[in-house]
Amino acid sequence: MNKSLLLLLVLFSVSTFSFAQSKNDVMHMMDGPKEVQIKEVSQHLIKFTYPQESTIYSVSKHQIEKIEFASGRVENFESPFKKIKGLENAEDVFVTYNFEEVTGLTNVGELFSKATGVTSLSSMNNVKNRSLDKMKAEAAMTGANVILIGNANSRGNTYGNQNVPAVSTQTVLFGQAYNSFPSNNEKLIELTSGKRVHHYQVHSLNRNDFGPEMAIATKYDSDRRPVMSEITAATERDGKVFVKIPGFKSKTGELQVILADETQIVLMEQTNKVIYNYIFITEESDMLKKIPRISGY
What's the CATH number for 25-79? Predict the structure, then answer.
């Protein structure tokens, strides 16, 4: 009798444990699925706890792909956050004025943008859009894909007279840059360390200028082959990856890896007013593959 009772108790415990486990929800985020217990789904946030814990966490709804509830119901979410490849698709940077929409994202740094009309007849709306476009460009060049605007100041045109000069419209924006895609620094180091690369383009943005500039940086040797360099060191510091390229002239000596794959590496450096993106292509790029024996010189 005692053995039978003990067996029943064990079976009951296992059943209870399995039932408790099945009560968990599965939240599919951009960096993978997490087993949680959903507490609240609001307009911008999802609040949850981890199994057998009481601390409530919050995350932007835009970071969630779908939730598989313990009940069996599945709720899908469509995120406006897109991967950014520098100035190439800076227009896709997501802009918000709501702090809840960036909850749980990685803060990249402060942003500032200013645009001024050319004359006192300039369109105020066009100047506002230009200021926003400049901020999107700066965010994209730092590797961010989301902007939280904290403050915006605008003035209209003031028509002058013989005693008072005219003043054109101006918009000034202050914000924070965020990244919704977690950086895999170990992978970035693997993709950059020891790589032979060719400096292909340079992108720059001066906060006081009209907008970003792009220029071809390709240089050729005496045999009319693209000049190659080598990334000799890639190190991680403060959650970021920095590299060194002997002989490459930079403004600050700090070259941060923003993007890297098998064919292209984007490095960034920033001064008080100007941000630079240096675009390097690897030996695996289509352009260099077309050149015979590119790896042999």
Answer: 2.30.30
Structure-block tokens of residue 175: 């914000």
Nearest 10 degrees: CA dihedral of 189, 187, 111, 216?
Answer: 70
Task: Show Cβ contacts of residue 17 under 8 Å, excluding neighbours closer than 6 positions.
Answer: none
Mean pLDDT, consecutive 10-residue stretches, the chain (297 aa), reads 54 47 82 92 93 93 93 93 92 96 93 90 90 96 96 87 83 96 91 95 92 93 90 91 91 88 95 93 89 52
CA geometry: angle 189, 229, 142, nearest 5 deg: 50
Q: What Cα–Cα distance (Å) separates residue 221 from each residue in 198, 226, 268?
A: 12, 6, 25
Any idea where the domains of the chain sit in the sequence? Answer: 25-79, 86-179, 185-296
| Range list of H helices, 193-254 | none
CB-side neighbour CA atoms (13 Å) of 62? 22
Specify the fold of 86-179. Translation Initiation Factor IF3 (3.30.110)
DSSP string, 27-68: EEETTEEEEEEEEEE-SSEEEEE-TT----EEEEGGGEEEEE
| Torsion from C-alpha of 190, 201, 205, 210, nearest 10 degrees | -150
Report d(CA 234, CA 284) in Å as an integer.
Answer: 19
Length of the chain: 297
Alpha helix stretches (DSSP H) within the chain:
2-22, 124-141, 185-192, 286-289
Q: Report the Cα 84 to chain-centroid distance in Å.
A: 6
Strands 94-96, 146-155: pairing is parallel
Environment class of 11 (CB within 10 Å of its CB; exposed 0-12, middle 13-18, buried 19+): exposed
